[in-house]
Amino acid sequence: MAVSVTAGCSSSSEPAASDQGGQSGGSDRSEPVTIKFHADGISFKKEDLDPIIAKFQEKNPDILVEFVPLNEANAADNVKKIDLLSASGEQLDAILLPDDRSYAQRAANGLLEPLNGLMEKEGLNYGEEYKIDTSIEGQYYGLPGTFRQWFVILNKDHLDEANLPVPTEWTWDEYLEYAKKMTKGEGATKRYGTYFHNWIDYFLLGLWNQPEKNDLVLADHTVNLDHPGVRKSMEIRYQAELVDKSATPYVDIISQKLTYRPLYFNQQASMMPIGSWMIGEVGGGDEFTASFKTVFAPMPKNNKEDPNGYSFMNANYVGVVSISKHKEEAYKFLRFFTTEGIPMMKKYLSSWKKEDTAAAIDELIQASKNPEMVDKESLMYTLNNSKPITRQMPVAYTEEINKAYSEEFELMLLGKQDIDKSLANAAEKIEKIVAANK
Question: Within this chain, do residues 329 and 410 fall inside the same structural domain, yes or no?
Answer without folding.
Answer: no
